[in-house]
Structure formats: C-alpha cells, structure tokens
Amino acid sequence: MEIKNELIDLLKQIDRKRDFGEYTMTELQKIAEKAIKAIQEYNPESDSIVELKESIRLSDKFHKESSYKSVDNIMSVLRSTKFAIESFLYKEFGIEI
C-alpha cells in the first residue's frame, strides 16, 4: 500500500469514532506506532516521527498516572497524533485533510 493511502487510512480510523469517549489511549498509541513505521520507511528524517513519538510518550505517561481514561488526556494524544500525520501528508505530498 502506498504511504499516502496508509496514512489516510490511519486518519480514517481516528475519525470513525463518533464520541471522544469511544477512543482508548491504547488504540491511539497503536495508530501512532503504525504511522511511525510507515513514515520511517519513506523519510526517516521526518519531523513527524518526533511528533508521533511525543504522542506515544504522552500516552505512556497517562497510563503510568492511571489517567488514561480522562477525555482531556485522550484528546491531547488524539490531537498530537492526528496533527503529526496530517502535517506529514501536507509537507511531503501537499495533501490537506
């Protein structure tokens, strides 16, 4: 699968949920990990990798604090993950989502 399509599919996975309470920190962390893998194969020097790793770090922090069910914390991880993927698509391919 082309990297563009793979990353767009990951964004669609994020957007499929109808309510923020339906998200889990673990789901978002797995999406970030998949995005890192795809981006590293295409451009291992991308700033988006750093941003996605920060999303994972936040997720780990919230798990350790047992605050991973907090909607605010989930939204922080969701926003940073989504922004990193969208930013990469725009910088590399000029795709705005």
Detailed description of the structure:
This protein has 97 residues and is mostly helical. The protein has four helices and no strands. The protein has helices spanning 3-15, 25-42, 47-64, 71-93. Helix 1 (3-15) runs antiparallel to helix 4 and helix 3 packs antiparallel against helix 4 (71-93). It starts with a helix and ends with a helix.
Key terms for this structure?
97 residues; 4 helices; mainly alpha; single chain
Q: Let me know the number of strands.
A: 0
- Helix-strand pattern: HHHH
Spatial gap, N to C terminus: 19 Å
Give the radius of gyration.
13 Å
Q: What summary fits the major beta sheet?
A: none
Whole-number average pLDDT? 92
What percent of the residues sit in helical stretches (DSSP H or I)?
over 70%
Question: What's this model, at a glance?
Answer:
The chain is an all-alpha fold and 97 residues long. It is built from four helices and no strands. The chain has helices at residues 3-15, 25-42, 47-64, 71-93.
